[in-house]
Known about the structure:
This protein is mainly α. It has 3 domains: 17-101, no CATH class; 103-177; 184-261. It is 57% helix and 6% strand. It contains 12 helices and 5 strands. The strands form 2 sheets. A 3-stranded antiparallel β-sheet has the order 1-3-2. The longest helix is centred in the middle third of the chain and has 17 residues, at 104-120. It is globular and about 50 Å long.
Amino acid sequence: MKISKDQLYSSKILKSGALLAETKILLANWDASITVVENLDRFERDNILGKASRSRVKDILEIFRQRYLTDGQVIGGLAALIKNRYPADSLDRILFFHAAKADLFMHDFVTEFLKNRYEAGNQDVSVKDAESWIRKKIEQGRTRGPWSEETIIKSAQGLMSALRDYGILQGIKNKHLASIYLPVGAFSYIAFYLNRLQPSGKRLIEAPEWHLFFLNPEAVEHLFMEAHQLHLLSYQAAGSVIRIAFPSDTIEEYVHVILERAP
């Protein structure tokens, strides 16, 4: 089967990483009264990140754009979360979700390789494991041409480092899978986002994006019931028929619901 261009992996992880601190600074200083371009120009002109290299600032802003600015609704919701001092453990899960959605390389490593490790009860993950996974994907034609050995090694290192910062992995030198907890507020945000793309209740429960947090359908269903009890959404199941409804139409509106009702 021929692989389309949007299914190919990029080594942009070399220039990105998690960028949690930088992302939170940009979100905290986001000005909703001006355009996206004007915000990005202001961030670069004022060097709001305090970086010595202008090229590094450009790289960070481009990654920020790719992760959080391709969907016009996302930035308003994220800015509201950070300006209302939303708990870091929940916010970091949401930022990881968007980063993985924007980077198929990171997404597939977690949902395929790490998820299988988790289900097998194997907690240890090494850079060599990541390198082997990358080489297999190169052999399968999942990259834009062959990668050099240096690119493979540095991409594996960058991937592992980013996932450690996001809390998916733990450890400095020797890494292992973290015990991932997805708070109900963060879960509800992600469910709302996915529901906009796929409104089917059954498919929403079985969405592959939940594998980013090592969740099976039973765990997802439990979280939906918890969110229902907190009036974050309406969840009704009758046999194979599942209806999920949300009290808001936009991400920013729903973020305010989460801020009011989630613990």
